[in-house]
## 1
Amino acid sequence: MKLRIIFAVAAVSVLAVSPIARAQELGNKWGSVEIGGGPYIPNIDDEFGGTARPYHDIFGGEPAPMFRLHVGKTILQSRMLGALEVGFKTGFWSKSGRAVNPDNGQPTGDRARFTIVPTSLTLTYRADFVYEQLRVPLIPYGRVTAERYNWWTSKEDEWTEKGATNGWSATAGVGLVIDWMDPDAARDLENEVGIAHTILYFDVTKSKVDDFGSDESWDLSEKNKLFWSAGLMVVF
Amino acid sequence: MRRALIMLLLAAPALAHAQTPSAGSILFDSQTINLRQCLRTPSGTGVPPLMNELDVGLTWTVDLDDNVNFQAGGRFRLYASPAETKGSDDEGRSCTQPRTGGQATPTFIREYTGTDANSASMLFAKDVEMNTLAAVVQNACTNTSEDATIYLCVAWIPPNGSDTAERGWATGTIRLDRVAPAPPASFNIEPGDGRLRITGCTGTGAAEDDFIAAATPEGGGTPQYSSRGEDCDLRITGLTNRANYSVVVYRIDTANNPSAASAAMTGTPVPSDDLWEHYDGAEEGGCNTGAGAAGILGALSLIAAAAAARRRKS
């Protein structure tokens, strides 16, 4: 009986210690920071089905760049499965145009501006093992996000309205690990600054930012169905 | 001790300067006198109303006679002239005589004594009236076809010296800019909500010129002026929508001389909608600015539903 207990305790100890040992072997990544952006047009006109184009009337059809900054904290990591991060993402987007005459819809001399500061909570899975185990310098990743777009409109630099619209998004992307270009420099970065990987990323996002279909909200989802962005990601 | 050394180091350049009377020059806080300053028109009056300093501050460093040391307690005498004085000659220097025979005799403006005369250099004079300086030029404020130069000369008189016992000199010039720029030949008006936007001024002028626009109700009334703009992109605000206004634009040169008014154009302010107003007009109800809480509740509901589904599967 006593021998069984000893074996049981030993087995549990081995199982418990094993993940810790693996994490130590992997170097315990802290998380990641990424900065990037892509072209964005809000889907405000869609709800009118072509009968009105309030956004297009003022700002036209050209997109404006949305800049994003994301910070993720690793919550799970495995040599064979990759890393899971929770994170926070913010950014900035702004577009200017001409206010229109309500009598005839013609542009006036008044400046109009629409500004969005998105804030997002993210859950990201990143397949680090593709590079770390298979030595292929491409790391796929996926992300689901709870979005909150804080926005305000202005005319001649005076606020006319402000608010926030909530939604969600899903992202799929791939990162090109540039560590392999100069392994010595990559090693120095890891030893001196703690940067495990430097990655150029490209991703596409499907978003739905319309207060979950509320009739009282406008639709700030990307007009072109998919929002693409590119930038730099650093894994610590 | 360390503080004293630092103070000494900081003061060294000024001390060195004070001990080395150099070129004998006069500096001004304004290099030009414009026509309104010449006429001593109060600031904020005239068409268009402009802000104009009516006095000029002078700072000078006198160049002492070779055989003379500066002494406190003397006097500085300021002269102005439409022609160069002998204050900058190599020999026989004098602020009271023209450099070339036949020219007008320099005009005595004012004298500075007491604390003003305790240093040979970097002395800041009391403000001098610009119209007094300009008056030394013939037809100073009536000849508006050409600019003129006013020559200034400061003479230092040692203590107990007579008015002509000059032993130090400083000279300088100031420009009487009395030629108004040409008005804009044309411009564009874009109507806005209670305002008019003026752009695209054409015509002859310097790149450094500024612009001001004015809108007067057709049928009479008080003109409304735009802010002064470095570029011809001006906004006249405080106007009534759907009322007609006569709009003119003035060009302002670097001396602050305004042009005559441009040819008038008619502008009519109109109401305007920005995105929110235009969206709201397109669909009553619009966006719910208080949707944040409802949205978060929606997100939480989604998460809860997903968790319930997972529990059902397991």
Note: Residues 12 and 199 of chain B are 52 Å apart (CA to CA).
## 2
Amino acid sequence: MEMNRRQFFRVSAAGLAGSSLAALGYSPTEALAETRNFKLARATETRNTCPYCSVGCGVIMYSLGDKAKNVTTNIVHIEGDPDHPVNRGTLCPKGAGLLDFVHSSNRLKYPEVREPGSKEWKRISWDEAFDRVAKLMKADRDANFIATNSNGQTVNRWLSTGMLCASASSNESGYITHKTMRSMGMLVFDNQARV
Amino acid sequence: MTNHWVDIKNADIVLIMGGNAAEAHPCGFKWVIEAKQHNKARLVVVDPRFTRSAAMADYYAPIRAGSDIAFLGGVINYLLGNDKIQHEYVKNYTNAPFIVGEAYSFADGVFSGYDDAKRSYSAASWGYELDEKGFAKVDPAMQHPRCVLQVMKKHFERYTPDMVSRITGTPKDRFLKVCEYIASTAVPNRAMTIMYALGWTQHSVGSEMIRTAAIMQLLLGNIGIAGGGMNALRGHSNIQGLTDLGLLSTSLPGYLSLARDGEQDLETYYKPRALKPLRPNQMSYWQNYPKFFVSLQKAWWGDAATAENSWAYNYLPKWDRSYDVLAAFELMSQGKLNGYICQGFNPVGSFPNKKKIITGLSKLKFLVVIDPLNTETSEFWKNFGEYNDVKSEEIQTTVFRLPSTCFAEEDGSLTNSGRWLQWHWKGAPPPGEALGDAEIIAGIFTRIRAAYAKDGGAFPDPIVKLTWAYKVPTNPSADELAMEANGRVLVDVFAPPDPKDPKAPPKPLLKGGEQIAGFGQLRDDGTTTSGCWIYSGMWTQAGNQMARRDNSDPWGIGQTLNWAWSWPANRRILYNAASSAPNGKPWDPRRKLVQWGGKAWGGADVPDIRPDANPDDPDRVQPFIMTAEGVARLFAPTGMAEGPLPEHYEPFETPLENNPMHPNNPKAKSNPAARVFKGDMEAFGSPKDFPYVATSYRLTEHFHYWTKNVLTSAIIQPEQFVEISESLAGAKGIKDGDMVKVSSNRGYIKAVAVVTKRMTQLDVDGKKVETVGLPNHWGFVGVAKPGYLVNTLTPFVGDANTQTPEYKSFIVNIERA
């Protein structure tokens, strides 16, 4: 039977290919060549924002995985969000390639450490990573914290450890980073806005 | 941006200068196309290269990289000289009529108040003449010789078309044609917007470049109107957010600032920040500073911040100087920094003078890298042959590499360049054991805190008393953090008594613990909290405003007020009361934005003025509510490191022997107020060895150093190249496609040469000046072939106000490799 693309999409979603409707001669003309349902029909749509430039294009991420326990959701497609008033469904070449960022072979997966003088990485646990970093930071702060300057004025600053913060991290992550680092007296503290 | 992306469609003239929107913000640039197609707009591009934006332009003019102040100063001179200014706007909405004090002077490139030894100015001599009440004196006729308009005319008359052409290399006829386009918007029914980016910020005089353009826009009446504005196109998806949240050396959230050493008590601290109005009846909104500061302190230290301890004033560090990134790496290279955390930032790729960066990192005791992708910085200690020639065994830095989530794997908000906070949702878990940034920061912090609680140590109070009421202490959720940054009331809040029924019981506005609706509800008495006052309103009792998805545009000018949420208070165009004349009626009935309706301001935006401020009042409330003057500052008595007015200075690495504006004053050759570390001055090259101007930039297909980890991006723009003109190629025997070596006094890179008509030779100060173009996107880590880091070449000097490095105008040599 004749169908336009939208109707075919809905039919596929209902899983009619190969069903009794097909047997009765009501199958869509293209369905006989279709051996499986259109993948995006059973995907979950999640709204997100492109992480690259500051236009902040809306994107829709399509993921597979029915969210049952032990099912790992996997993003299989990313495209522009047609509802977004700025980009209205379009993306630039970078945004259009976002899937390859999410699934890049250079994604970091495990905490690692490179010991002094070494030529390689060593995998460690998060516990060890947090413990060691916290110990190093506290020891450095205790040894170098400046409560008063040479004029006897209260300054309460820590200058021997610094941080560079990520301009593509969320506001919420930026907020907690500022709150914690500043509470320790950190002044060597910047983000990409500086450059 | 003072305006926003969609509003660009309302422009009559779009000026792209100091930026390349078609290349770097392609989906935003589409609104320029809309303006051209539906509003008969014209696009004018001024750039050292014929860029992709230039390819879409109605008019293009070339310019020597780094000489924008001379160009824009020339436009201002043209506007003032030809009386092409929006007279009513300039008279009423700027400080053109204000009278500058007698102590102000400017001679041979230097303003009054300069300290040679410190390379800095005191602004004391730049102030207005004040009356007995402490208000600035004004001359509405603008004839007084020391009124701002007259001071400006005198200052800018030196930027004649001949002088402009001599400094910038722009042919005079091209410069004048650009002036005509710009001047056409001096009338109330034509609007120009300026789209600029790092082509203006990444210079030692970057802030002044932007300021010159802003002065120009104010003279034309283009600020606060639809289709107008100073539209800063930020670089990253949330650089606006991180700027707003104050993650900079001496900043606090919401553009508050940390105290200097000398500000030992609250009153001293407030004085230069809680600005009192300089004209009668003005809002001078920063005078509410104490409300924002106290609310922040209550958000961070809760009950530990009380009136008795000045709201935990001393829990915050004070500063004696800026510890920005250039200062940080200077300290590192001197062995004075022990530890460094690099979160989502790749300094080996992104900071100037790669050699100095590697040296610095090699002297650290520990480096912690938090990133979703591998970076050069995390592997700075590895030898990659010519691309990174280091000896691992000599580098004693302990390096931790911690995997984080990427955008797709978290909930949270990002603030785009138009100040819109947009919420996003998690679509999938991250790979392997990667964790969200908040969880990583919390993991480190809670352990440090536990150690201080258990073992004590240096001044533990601000750490152990930091508010931490998150449901999962090792993993604060995005919702909790957003609600905290918005702010809440700690006590029940009631509406003021109803004048029609004063005996009625007061109506409750908010119960204690509820989310505040906006920063107007903040108080300085400890009864309100807010982690970032300018974001107040993003998460109210009505819920997460950033997640709103109504894209309707009822007025047809792109004002989608119910899509997401913008700061401040969901205003989409800043200073929008300036879209109406002093009588409260729109300048342009065809482009109405916000106007006075008889009882209140209203229209197609949230009014950026007190809603009941009647424009017919004597001493009406003026639209520039954040300034002490109430009006915009053409002449800035405070705020800029270089002086109250812009002046052309040469980049620190220049092809010229001196500054053509001040050939006999070496102090005025380059920015007199810029900071240069010892050792970095020596690392500058001279035009004898490095005769060509260099500028660095992005390509559409890549995003900095991230996308060499992204297969699609690497495929469509695979190989590192540099761009040179046909004349430079001919002079050096370089053919299109040859491998070339580009060197500066700090190192070299190798790349393929692209010989193109899009680069031109310019006539500058009697010399033929060539430019080498350097796209940024290659390095020694990635999924495709390695390349050289362009920042091997760049100089270690920054803008005097921001310390943003001078990546966009320096000098190099080029030869066949």
Note: The longest strand of chain A covers residues 58-64.
